[in-house]
Design goal:
alpha/beta; globular
Length: 187
């Protein structure tokens, strides 16, 4: 079920033109940077966007320019290693699956990150998510006590994502059209 849903939504996302993706990503960036929890956070963990994902490279550069500490994940075996970067264009290089990762940086502690901005393939308004299948965030999120915000295009939202009891929903989802406060949608 999850695999079929993931494939369906990703196929639709891949059909966005670069211009549509750029324009929607700019709307998402404006909403993200306007969130009170984002403005208040001094240390934010981002993901470096890849292929048809919401584009985060400009967001990362902007957050650094605004004086935020930025942490990016690097795949290390079956886990994510968290590294704080200083200059995006200098500190990252293609890593696992060709995704940009920190080549170097200061190791970051999960407890010091005030907000995690994360990707995903499919979401519902309750904050449930389907990732890409590797389970990196599924291992990370149970250890994290702070706030989480997922970035997604509106087309990545479905009515219900099949979620197991161990799945951790995100607090908010930011799309090009709205900010979904997932906790207000809990039944």
């Amino acid at each position: 079920m999850k695999d079929k849903l993931r494939k369906q939504v990703l196929n639709t996302r891949f059909n966005l033109t670069p211009e549509q993706r750029r324009n929607a990503s700019a709307e998402i960036e404006a909403r993200l940077f306007g969130l009170p929890e984002f403005r208040a956070a001094s240390t934010v963990m981002f993901y470096a966007s890849f292929q048809s994902e919401v584009e985060t490279h400009h967001m990362i550069r902007r957050a650094l320019a605004e004086g935020k500490r930025v942490v990016l994940p690097r795949v290390k075996g079956k886990e994510l290693e968290l590294l704080e970067i200083g200059i995006f264009d200098r500190d990252v290089a293609p890593g696992a699956w060709g995704i940009l990762e920190p080549e170097s940086g200061r190791p970051a502690q999960l407890k010091d990150i005030e907000l995690i901005v994360l990707p995903g393939a499919v979401f519902d308004e309750q904050g449930n998510r389907i990732g890409y299948g590797a389970g990196f965030y599924d291992k990370l999120l149970p250890l994290y006590k702070g706030r989480t915000v997922a970035l997604a295009f509106e087309l990545q939202l479905v009515s219900t994502v099949p979620a197991a009891s161990h799945d951790i929903p995100v607090h908010k989802i930011v799309t090009e059209k709205r900010v979904i406060d997932a906790k207000t949608h809990k039944s």
